[in-house]
Specification:
globular, alpha+beta, Alpha-Beta Plaits, 7-stranded mixed beta sheet, Aminopeptidase, 28% strand, 4-stranded mixed beta sheet, 2 domains, 7 helices, 11 strands
Length: 216
Amino acid sequence: MVFQLTKRLAFPDPHYGDPDGLLAVGGDLSVDRLILAYSNGIFPWYAFREKQIQWWCPLQRFVIFPDEIHISHSMRTLINKGRYGLSFNQAFPEVIGQCGNLRKEQEGAWLGKDMTQAYTHLYEQGFAASVEVWDDRCLVGGLYGVALGKCFFGESMFSLVPNASKLALIHLALTFKQLGGTLIDCQFETPHLKSMGGRYIDYEEYMKHVQPPGGF
């Protein structure tokens, strides 16, 4: 069942959503609604040919645990060469802009003006973050997502050179682990993410990380 949201700041129980994870449509992209959504494992997704917001919450969650990140031999070699610089939150607008440029070519979703503004507002209030990959002073890759408690909810990544997004994800996982982070939500499975340690867990286990006893 797909629910129609109203102005009321609330979401239905994800267990009543469609089997594919689509839970609701409508609502808005306010900071408060986005924080409530992610705190319950729900994320927004614009349909490519539709104007309304879709809200998704798959009950089988594709995640990466930071201590399970897989670093291939070729990636270790690239890291050890030290060719690329890595940083956090040094170019959030540029990262989300590059991700938006890539999304325009995808049939599944579009990271347009409204979504870009919404995540920028989250970033400005400390609830979103970016990882950047640099070749000298040139931004060549990165990712961004929502950071709540000990969880990072990945939204999108891009690469302008081979393996740049993998470098960003590895840097995120290793740093997040050091900071006590326990889970990176990948939203949907891709061969790229599966090769780096992504696996499925059920919603109940997922929520133990998102809403641990005692809160954030």
